[in-house]
Amino acid sequence: xxxxxxxxxxxxISGMWRPIEWxxxxxxxxxxxxxxxxxxxxxILFLAQLLDIILVIDNVDDFAANSLLLLSVISxxxxxxxxxxxxxxxxxxxxxxxxxxxxxxxxxENDIQMKxxxxxxxxxxxxxxxxxxxxxxxxxxxxxxxxEGELPFRTxxxxxxxxxxLFWITSIQELVALIFATIVNVATETxxxxxxxxxCAQFEILEHRLxxxxxxxxxxxxxxxxxxxxxxxxxxxxxxLHHLCxxxxxxxxxxxxxxxxxxxxxxxxxxxxxxxxHLSSHMTIADFVTLIVYTLCMFVQIFVYCWAGNExxxxxxxxxxxxxxxxxxxxxxxxxxxxxxxxxxxxxxIKFTSSFLVTxxxxxxxxxxxxxxxxxxxxxxx
Length: 382
Description:
Elements: H1 5-14, H2 25-55, H3 60-85, H4 87-97, H5 107-147, H6 164-219, H7 226-281, H8 285-324, H9 333-346, E1 353-354, E2 358-359, H10 362-381
Antiparallel strand pairs: 1-2
Helix pairs in contact: 1-6, 2-3, 2-6, 3-6, 3-7, 4-7, 5-6, 5-8, 6-7, 6-8, 7-8, 7-9, 7-10, 8-9, 8-10
């Protein structure tokens, strides 16, 4: 089964990921047209929102309300561009996870892999359900605006949309763009989460291999020969290569999604404080319910990134504890040195970062909430 199949299925229906197994030139061309169509919808929505802020809006309340969707669309555009332009790196990640030394060798390792695959799928479906609930509310609100003779969202368009045909075309374009933006958002968040948990699965598999090697070493203590010793050294070298492969995979994941993480963090700070400001100044029932659900989704959205990064940090440093618990006495000096190298490297946790400002961890999540509250207070006093 392909790694992260559900997550890449979401990317596929959003137009950002052509399935790897497609080889037909006709299908590739048609899907490229679908990708261009989706990107055009998102860019048009972004420009319409931006021009409305620049040309029309003249007060803080309208600016806060319109900036919510604009900032979300900006982050979605970054995610879409990252998925399309870095496809080769993502394919390389998938292929590396499916071959040696990352591939499960036996039933115990396969159970570990399946446990994390089920966890990723469960979290992805739960997050998709939450995002779908929020998007459904936004679409219903947009439909109600259409029934009142207004566009679903406040935008500026360079033509008179009062004619029924142009009005319906513009309205449908905005709603469809919102749906695709939601799918791209969900696909990216769950894919980053999935790759982080795959790194955690690899660490757990590596720990299992080291523990199994130590147990086998203990059983063979009384019948060891020179050939056996060379085999053990070769097996330990494989485990070191596996550890280096995991570190390299984490670096590639960070390189692919670093800009997305950076934009998402700062967009989330602004969106959250603008949402709280809008809630504090507009307390109608419709606005309150819609914005509460939207705010909840934003909190969960950034928490997904931070929790996933934090799990990788814990797993990467926890490897040294597993190595420490191995019976060192039974091993020759050269193997002890190799294990010491693994322990030494494990003291430096694997971190997912974007520049020096953003590190994915629960501590960063707390700092983001503090920054959001500070920005909200500043906006309220202005």
